[in-house]
């Protein structure tokens, strides 16, 4: 609770590469800087022999600890180990993924000398807990309530897994909202006094691409259509550049560096840096000493080369823009503003293609692309928290939801881009004479055959009155709530017997026991973090004390205010503790304090 006794609610943009948190305070949204003073925090967690690091601290040490520094978990969340995307991403990650229960991908690391496995939800929960702590330190109160954003194209199980991650982090997830929708809210809020406008949000981040068309008018945001690709973003551009550099290194030295994870990590981060600089310069260099087997790597990269390496990926973005435009049934000239969101929207070629498609229209850059999503999430959180905000949000389903009729043919009951919440019904019947049971598998996706779509779950309607095939009338009802979460039900009209299923993807989801264990583990991690902070403070206090006292002893010796023998004793004690500090980075709080007390006693004559 804050000083006025009201619970605060925060908005978190849980990004593939960076996360950002905002809160409504003093009648405006404030984006909160982390302990390093940065307004975005790397979505990264590192495990070391002594501690767990999250955010900037994890990123700082990645080149020395690549196997135990985990990132990109948003690409794993809600997926199966054998998914094509998981298998191909794994080839590029320096950390290890192993198959867990029910084909769940698990991250394997060594932490404090022991092998540990973590679900993607747990790693994401650590990033969320860091964002929660950033907000708490800033607001000086506990924070429980949060709105978390996900890519519009996240499927049902990915959304639920993200919610689970929030719970493990100790958050009450008030709502999950789509990232481009959050950006549209931000725009709607910034342009509060404007007339009704149609906007296109082009959200190209680190791992995902979303495009969304919405109408905004005085705090009302109505999404008309969304499209996107969950595997398209800045990291794909980095990978293209990485592969190019690996090939040129291998060719030049006739050795294969692709088996050296540390070298790959170093090269990847240089590629990412080079990519960023190519957004403002037309040429840059990649220069790494001793990259692999003692060989240096030096190359020039031109913007044109970067564009050539990624031309098909940029083209994919534009195809999705076209699809979204068609779905929205708007013409190009009806789009008033094009909003750029996500770090990768800074790439000049991407901007050029987008502007060209809209007949050289100028792109809107008055919304900060790194913060727009967290800003919108914080606005939604504040509105749900009954702050004085005028915000009405109508979102849509990104994927069609349907059932299997007629041996594998998909029948969409809720077509994609239907405004939510929604309730849709259809009537089906039996295929066999005297059939008393019907199984309803539920799918999401746009393909005509269910096998090509994503199976969300299934339920059974039993006790149908026996009759000739085609006679029973079964009412199937799909209800989608404002978060896009589906409850499906079926009822035999004659007997009134019914059954329903709230799609929970039990197979991929964490069981209650697993969740409870992860919540308990998160608590252990939180306590360890608190202990680590105390340790850093105790160590820091001792280090400062030693430094200050050494100068005071020298000063006292010069002034002759202390006997030579006493000064020598103090110097010796101070030097001994200084050496001990060098060798005992991870001593306990008590040990640091004991050394401090001992030294203060020995140096008391200087106070
Ligand atoms: P986000 O997920 O929105 O934080 O976007 C992060 C992605 O944006 C990462 O892949 C970054 O490398 C990329 N990015 C950030 N700044 C730039 C830039 N100036 N040019 C190209 N890509 C960038």
Radius of gyration: 28 Å
Which homologous superfamily in CATH is the superfamily of the largest domain? ATPase, nucleotide binding domain
Domain count: 4
Q: What is the third-level CATH name, the topology of the largest domain?
A: Nucleotidyltransferase, domain 5
Poorly predicted runs: none
By helix and strand content, what is the structural category? alpha+beta
Compounds present?
adenosine monophosphate
Q: Distance between the terminal alpha carbons, to the nearest Å?
A: 42 Å
CATH class of the largest domain: Alpha Beta
Number of helices: 13
Q: In total, how many beta strands?
A: 28
- Helix share, percent: 25-40%
Strand count, sense and barrel status of the largest sheet are: 6 strands, mixed
CATH architecture of the largest domain: 2-Layer Sandwich
Bin the strand percentage.
25-35%
Shape: globular
What is the mean predicted local confidence, pLDDT? Answer: 90
Structure description:
This protein has 607 residues and is α+β, with helices and mostly antiparallel strands. The chain has 4 domains: 3-231 and 318-393, Nucleotidyltransferase, domain 5; 234-311, Actin, Chain A, domain 4 (Alpha-Beta Complex); 397-502, Substrate Binding Domain Of DNAk, Chain A, domain 1, CATH 2.60.34; 512-606, Substrate Binding Domain Of Dnak, Chain:A, Domain 2, CATH 1.20.1270. Strands 1, 2, 3, 4, 11 and 12 form a 6-stranded mixed beta sheet that branches. It has a 6-stranded mixed beta sheet with strand order 18-13-14-15-19-22. Strands 21-20-24-25 form a 4-stranded antiparallel beta sheet, with no helix packed on it. Adenosine monophosphate (AMP) is lined by residues 15-18, 205-206, 234-235, 272, 275-276, 279, 342-344, 346-347, 370. The site of adenosine monophosphate has 18 residues, from α6 and α7.
């Amino acid at each position: 609770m804050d000083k006025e006794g009201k619970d605060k609610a925060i908005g978190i943009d849980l990004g593939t590469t960076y996360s950002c948190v905002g809160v409504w305070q003093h009648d405006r949204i404030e984006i909160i800087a982390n302990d390093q003073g940065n307004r975005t925090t790397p979505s990264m967690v590192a495990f070391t022999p002594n501690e767990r690091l999250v955010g900037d601290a994890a990123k700082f040490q990645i080149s020395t600890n690549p196997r135990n520094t985990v990132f990109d978990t948003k690409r794993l969340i809600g997926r199966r180990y054998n998914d094509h995307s998981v298998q191909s991403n794994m080839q590029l990650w320096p950390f290890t993924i192993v198959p867990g229960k029910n084909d769940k991908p698990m991250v394997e690391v060594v932490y404090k000398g022991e092998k540990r496995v973590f679900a993607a939800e747990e790693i994401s929960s650590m990033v969320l807990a860091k964002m929660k702590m950033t907000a708490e330190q800033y607001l000086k109160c506990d924070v429980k309530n949060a709105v978390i954003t996900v890519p519009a194209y996240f499927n049902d199980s990915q959304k639920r897994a993200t919610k689970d991650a929030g719970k493990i982090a100790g958050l009450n997830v008030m709502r999950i909202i789509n990232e481009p929708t959050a950006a549209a809210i931000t725009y709607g809020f910034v342009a509060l006094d404007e007339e009704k406008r149609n906007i296109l949000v082009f959200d190209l981040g680190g791992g995902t691409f979303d495009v969304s068309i919405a109408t905004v008018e005085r705090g009302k945001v109505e999404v008309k259509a969304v499209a996107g690709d969950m595997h398209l973003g800045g990291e794909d551009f980095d990978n293209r550049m990485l592969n190019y550099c690996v090939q040129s290194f291998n060719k030049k030295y006739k050795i294969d560096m692709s088996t050296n994870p540390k070298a790959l990590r170093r090269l990847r981060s240089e590629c990412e840096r080079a990519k960023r600089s190519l957004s403002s310069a037309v040429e840059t260099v990649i220069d790494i000493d001793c990259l692999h087997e003692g060989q240096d790597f030096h190359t020039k990269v031109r913007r044109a080369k970067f564009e050539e390496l990624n031309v098909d990926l940029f083209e994919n973005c534009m195809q999705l823009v076209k699809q979204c435009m068609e779905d929205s049934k708007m013409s190009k000239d009806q789009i008033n503003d094009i909003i750029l969101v996500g770090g990768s929207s800074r790439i000049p070629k991407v901007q050029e293609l987008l502007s060209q498609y809209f007949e050289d229209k100028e792109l809107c850059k008055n919304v900060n692309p790194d913060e727009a999503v967290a800003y919108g999430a914080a606005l939604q959180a504040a509105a749900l928290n009954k702050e004085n905000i005028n915000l009405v949000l109508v979102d849509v389903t990104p994927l069609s939801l349907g059932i299997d009729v007629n041996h594998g043919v998909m029948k969409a009951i809720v077509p994609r881009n239907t405004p939510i919440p929604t309730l849709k019904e259809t009537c089906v019947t039996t295929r066999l004479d005297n059939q008393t049971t019907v199984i309803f598998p539920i799918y999401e996706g746009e393909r005509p055959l269910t096998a090509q779509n994503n199976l969300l779950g299934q339920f059974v309607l039993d006790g149908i009155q026996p009759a000739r095939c085609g006679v029973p009338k079964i009412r199937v009802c799909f209800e989608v709530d404002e978060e896009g979460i589906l409850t499906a039900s079926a009822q035999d009209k004659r007997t009134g017997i019914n059954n329903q299923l709230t799609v929970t993807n039990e197979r991929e989801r964490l069981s209650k026991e697993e969740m409870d264990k992860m919540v308990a583990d998160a608590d252990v991690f939180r306590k360890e973090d608190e202990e680590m902070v105390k340790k850093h403070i105790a160590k820091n206090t001792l280090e400062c004390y030693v430094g200050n006292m050494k100068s005071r002893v020298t000063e006292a010796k010069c002034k002759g205010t202390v006997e030579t023998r006493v000064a020598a004793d103090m110097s010796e004690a101070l030097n001994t503790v200084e050496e001990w500090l060098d060798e005992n980075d991870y001593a306990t709080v008590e040990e640091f304090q004991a050394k401090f007390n001992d030294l203060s006693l020995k140096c008391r004559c200087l106070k």
